[in-house]
Amino acid sequence: MTQERAAAADLVGRARGLVGGSRRLLGITGPPGAGKSTLAAHLARELGPSAAVVPMDGFHLANAELTRLGRRDRKGAPDTFDALGFTALLRRLRAADHDVYAPLFDRDLEEAIAGALLVPGEVALVITEGNYLLLDEGAWGGVRGLLDEVWYLEPDDVAREERLIARHVAHGKAPEEARAWALGSDRRNARIVARTRALADLVVRPPLPDPAPAPTS
Fold first, then answer.
1. Is residue 105 part of a domain?
2. pLDDT tens readout for residues 45-57
3. d(CA 114, CA 62)
């Protein structure tokens, strides 16, 4: 597989080139805090109604289930997701010419909400983003073959971890807890993701698009 490098400014055109004919699926991966959701949202805004975003994070296992399994303290690791469910949804999205509903992860609740995302049948490009799109282990091994392209985001690790800490604080963690999580569980998961980099079609370096401004009343 040929791997290229690209700046964020070139990506809208590349994504637009995937639109046409049958539905296509684009994956955006990278370590926690790399800017995957920001880039996916930017592409969807630029492409308009021809694109929709379906994050992998909607397949987080519920906190109660993670507690039962003894995995609550490492939420975000590969075995804390329903990888088979995510793979099944990707298959459905590839084949569908009708509306499909997908789950969405709510960071404030720290839980997934079923049926929260609508992907209209006429959407030509589904953009999915998440840590483990290129992981070739267990149930995750079925994901890559369902995606037409996968882009790997490669930001500066220091800046990425600082963003992660700030994000954890914004969603309710105390600063000390946020730092411990970012430099502990998140860092371990980032090392797993980094091992998949060579399988990407494209490596994207900063700067990434800024998040859309919050709506004003």
1. yes
2. 999 999 999 999 9
3. 11
